[in-house]
Specification:
The structure holds 2 protein chains of 2 kinds.
Chain A lengths: L1 H15 L23 E6 L14 H7 L7 E3 L5 E3 L2 E6 L5 E6 L13 H12 L9 H4 L1 E5 L5 E6 L6 H7 L5 H4 L19 E7 L3 E6 L12 E6 L3 H9 L5 E3 L2 H7 L4 H4 L2 E3 L6 E7 L9 H10 L2 H8 L4 E2 L23 H10 L12 E2 L2 E2 L1 E7 L2 H16 L3 E7 L1 H9 L6 E7 L7 H4 L17 H12 L3 H18 L2 E7 L3 E4 L36
Parallel strand pairs in A: 1-10, 17-18, 17-19
Antiparallel strand pairs in A: 2-3, 4-5, 5-7, 6-7, 8-9, 9-10, 11-21, 12-21, 13-19, 13-20, 14-20, 15-16
Chain B lengths: L1 H28 L17 H10 L6 H13 L18 E2 L5 E2 L2 H33 L4 H15 L2 H15 L18 H39 L2 H8 L4 H13 L1 H15 L3 H6 L5 H11 L2 H29 L1 H8 L1
Antiparallel strand pairs in B: 1-2
Helix pairs in contact in B: 1-3, 1-13, 4-5, 4-7, 5-7, 6-7, 7-9, 8-9, 10-13, 12-13, 13-14
Classes of the chains: A alpha+beta, B mainly alpha.
Chain lengths: 546, 339
């Protein structure tokens, strides 16, 4: 909603003249300080987790906090390559059907109990249990046998090779058997009082207000430096920003306006708050309903792709803080095909392609038509400012080449329930996450088109199907890379969706926090947050909590 | 009198059932259910597991059957548990076999909203009454004009904008008041007095903002009520009797002018438990408004129905109390009720 951008601009330009905040700081944030332990870091979150068992609570707030409490067998390193976390090593059998994880020795839960392969097996049983209300069970149900030959070995066997398996084991956070055995995982109070094995443990949870985590001295991955992480729940972004200005919180995620417009005009803020950029986790796209005319014609799809100026979207919607993508993977990582380039903005080519497809303005109303039908469609999107603004810019560019695109903005649940599930739409502006594992079977395979499944645009290409199937079976990383490069190339050519952009994550972090890896590696700014520290002289006057 | 009361209470039951029936159907008219939330639009989550959830929550059954199930539970005053993954009790805490207590969602949000709304009601009465009276007494002269202007500005100003401005001015520029939240980070380590002081400091802005628009309405109401009354014959009589101006205004006029306010306060009882989504979001306060709004977005039916039912019951009770208070305060009404 442009009103909101204007509002923030007006608000802050007005406020900029209101007199400077009274934080007379004479500390030098740029000085070099020794790395010491201790201190509190306070961050702001939009929402509150519903619980801290990640497989049950699906929302991002829950996983953000739970990822500080629980470990997985594997994790992604700074360059988004897999490495061991609880597992010291893993071995894939010659037939590619069995994976054996060797756990690190002498690991403990935060309550001092030993962490063994029995806990891993227990977690797998939980996630695959019919009574567990988790949406994430299907990947783990592919395991036909799971066993623990000894306390440090966990072995899983699959019916057939399953390449995304390692990624799924990086996504399953291991829960303590000794505390959860015999409990109903769906309603257990453990969800609000979890015991894990990672850098932090739960200190206090004030309902609706904040969660405090304290350092776990028994952490399996070594000790973190910052003593206490406090997450405050502040639903409103403007309030978060005021808290950041008043030095009541240390980190928040900025929006492009705050990052590119407000900060540069406020030297008193840039003096104490550092701004960072990291690769976004998702991309925005314009997706076509391929079962409807005119989108069943590849020339129309390509023409629209040529007619949309991606750089204009990035500049206008993200104020330049994003990049174009040409495959559904994080730019710069292994799975991105470096040879692919986004469709350039070329309205002449677009017009030529449409002409080839039989579209011309026969009746002279400025809109192309074919067989007496005008080339017109409706773009649906949900209430998301960036998507709405993108739709407006797209609408204008399409108008130029004679396509009449209308925009309709809907509340999320209606959007999904009435249009996506039923397939009653022409085109959508939506986002998909840039997955770490390249397997995107559920999004692009032709078998995934039933109502409620994720190939709702109805994409079907036998070649792509074959590649997606091969990619799931292939465990050799080089061969797998080739498969997905080829998959991305075909997808780009077919243009079932127009990749619009991937926005950057824009964290702002107070300069009292040191040890930050800048520029951020592909894994994001937080990848080494356990190494961050707050030098003594820079700490807030702290009333330390219990 | 007793008969009248029993009669009123008796008729509240079918009324409540009717309200809940309509609420239930309207709620189900909106497309989507809990399994269509934004968080569940995740390729890792399979459609089968969503279907499983739907069956678990009886969402696959016809709406009328779902309503019957809900009504059956409500008959035992069981508000059920939330559809959200934490499955917390909607209304009041429950204790499981191991003695673990799970707090109810309304139980936790209600006291906060109630505190803010009661405080802002007190603020409204304390400020609006004198303003209205002064306004009426100085009708069409400078004080009246100034008050009316002030009141209209207060009414017209967008609450969220003023809230942000005040947060910036008192919190960022001057550091007088906290910006958002209900308690400071070190709250647990403070003494009792400091804790109360800390909470009050956090409440200043939310109470002021939520009271502001009510202020305008009530003071205009008092002003107009006073003006009506001041033109009545009995006021002229009182003046003619030679009563002092104070006795005329406060003893005769004001008491009569306040009668309609009883209705207004009776009607504001359900409002006491409904928080404002905008104020609560801006000030990061976990109250009823945010609870209801989030429940609607998530299609968390038990929570929506719980809040609506309690709100409906309170509205009916508020009406009843207002009628009773009327009868107590106004002999003319009392006579009507007795007959």
């Amino acid at each position: 909603m442009p009103f909101n951008r204007l509002f923030y601009l007006a608000l802050f330009s007005l406020l900029a003249g209101c007199g400077e905040p009274q934080q007379a700081s004479n500390v030098d944030y740029d000085q070099v300080y020794p790395a010491v332990g201790g201190g509190n870091m306070i961050n702001a979150m939009i929402g509150e987790p519903s619980g801290l068992i990640p497989m049950i609570a699906g929302e991002s707030a829950a996983s953000a906090i739970a990822s500080n409490i629980f470990n997985s067998l594997l994790k992604y390193d700074r360059n988004l390559e897999l490495e061991g976390e609880l597992a010291e090593s893993w071995m894939i059998s010659a037939d590619h059907r069995t994976i054996t994880f060797k756990l690190k020795p002498d690991m403990q839960w935060a309550d001092g109990q030993p962490l063994t392969s029995a806990d891993v097996l227990f977690t797998w049983q939980l996630v695959t249990d019919e009574n567990t209300r988790t949406p994430y069970g299907s990947d783990y149900k592919l395991v036909i046998k799971a066993e623990t030959p000894d306390a440090l070995t966990f072995r899983v066997s699959y019916q057939e090779p399953y390449a995304p398996a390692l990624d799924t084991w990086a996504g399953l956070q291991i829960l303590p058997k000794h505390l959860l055995e015999g409990q109903d995982i769906n309603t257990t109070t453990f969800a609000r009082n979890p015991v894990g094995s990672h850098y932090y443990k739960l200190g206090q949870w004030r309902n609706g207000e904040r969660i405090s985590l304290v350092r776990n001295p028994l952490a399996t991955q070594g000790e973190a430096r910052i003593e206490r992480l406090v997450s405050r729940f502040i639903p409103d972004a403007a309030s978060q920003f005021l808290e950041l200005m008043a030095d009541n919180i240390d980190t928040m995620n900025l929006n492009p306006i705050q990052y590119a417009r407000i900060f540069p005009s406020r030297p008193d803020l840039t003096e104490k708050i550092g701004l960072y950029k990291e690769l976004g986790n998702s991309y925005t796209y314009l997706g076509f309903n391929l079962k409807r005319k005119p989108f069943d014609d590849i020339r129309v799809r390509q023409a629209i792709n040529y007619a949309i100026n991606k750089q204009e979207l990035i500049d206008g919607v993200l104020l330049g803080l994003g990049e174009p993508v040409s495959s559904p993977y994080k730019p710069g990582t292994r799975w991105t095909n470096p040879e692919l380039q986004p469709y350039p903005y070329d309205s002449q080519k677009a017009i030529a392609l449409l002409k080839e497809a039989g579209y011309a303005d026969h009746d002279g109303d400025g809109i192309l038509d074919k067989d007496g039908k005008p080339l017109t469609f409706e773009m649906l999107t949900n209430q998301n400012k960036q998507r709405e603004m993108s739709a407006v810019l797209i609408q204008r560019r399409l108008k130029e080449i004679g396509i009449d695109a209308r925009i309709r903005v809907l509340e999320w649940a209606s959007f999904i329930g009435r249009f996506i599930k039923t397939g009653e739409f022409d085109a959508v502006v939506l986002g998909w996450s840039l997955s770490l594992d390249p397997d995107q079977y559920s999004i692009w395979h032709s078998s995934q088109q039933a109502p409620g499944q994720f190939n709702f645009i109805g994409y079907s290409n036998p070649q792509v199907d074959r590649l997606l199937e091969q990619g799931r079976l292939e465990l050799d990383i080089e061969k797998r890379t080739k498969i997905y490069h080829e998959f991305a190339r075909l997808l780009q050519e077919d243009s079932p969706v127009v990749y619009l952009y991937a926005g950057y994550g824009l964290p702002a972090i107070h300069k009292r926090i040191k040890g930050i890896d800048d520029p951020a590696p592909p894994a994001g700014i937080g990848h080494n947050s356990h190494e961050w520290y707050i030098p003594q002289p820079l700490r807030r006057l702290e009333i330390s909590a219990q | 009198m007793i008969r009248y009361l029993l009669n009123r209470i008796f008729w509240m039951v079918p009324l409540l059932i009717g309200i809940s029936l309509i609420s239930f159907f309207i709620m189900h008219l909106a497309p989507g259910d809990i399994t269509a939330s934004e968080a569940s639009f995740d390729p890792r989550a399979s459609e089968e597991s969503r279907q499983k959830l739907r069956e678990l929550y009886n969402l696959d059954k016809p709406v009328i059957v779902q309503y019957g199930l809900w009504l059956k539970r409500m008959a035992t005053l069981d508000f059920g548990t939330s559809f959200a993954s934490h499955q917390r009790p909607v209304f009041w805490q429950t204790t499981d076999e191991q003695g673990n207590v799970r707090k109810g969602m309304i139980q936790q949000a209600l006291p906060i909203t109630l505190l803010i709304n009661v405080l802002s009601l007190v603020l409204i009465i304390a400020v609006a009454l004198p303003l209205g009276v002064i306004s009426a007494l100085t009708r069409n002269r400078a004080p009246d004009r100034a008050i009316t202007l002030f009141v209209f500005i207060g009414f017209a100003i967008p609450g969220f904008w003023l809230a942000l401005m005040l947060m910036y001015w008192t919190g960022v520029v001057n550091n007088w008041l906290p910006i958002s939240g209900l308690h400071s980070i070190g709250y647990e380590n403070m003494g009792a007095i400091a804790q109360i002081f800390d909470t009050l400091k956090h409440l200043v802005l939310p109470v002021f903002i939520s009271g502001l628009s009510g202020l305008a309405g009530i003071s205009l109401f008092v002003r107009n009520g006073m003006l009506d009354v001041l033109h009545q014959d009995y006021i002229t009589t009182a003046r003619a009797k030679g009563l002092s101006e104070n006795t005329v205004v406060y003893g005769h006029a004001l008491r009569n002018a306040l009668l309609p306010l009883i209705t207004i306060f009776g009607l504001s009882i359900p409002g006491l438990i409904g928080g404002s989504v905008i104020a609560e979001s801006i000030f990061a306060i976990p109250g009823m408004g945010k609870l209801f709004y989030d429940a609607v977005l998530m299609r968390d039916f038990p929570v929506i129905m719980g809040i609506l039912t309690i709100g409906a019951a309170l509205t009916l009770i508020g009406n009843l109390l207002a009628d009773l208070a009327y009868a107590w305060a106004d002999p003319r009404v009392r006579r009507g009720v007795m007959q």
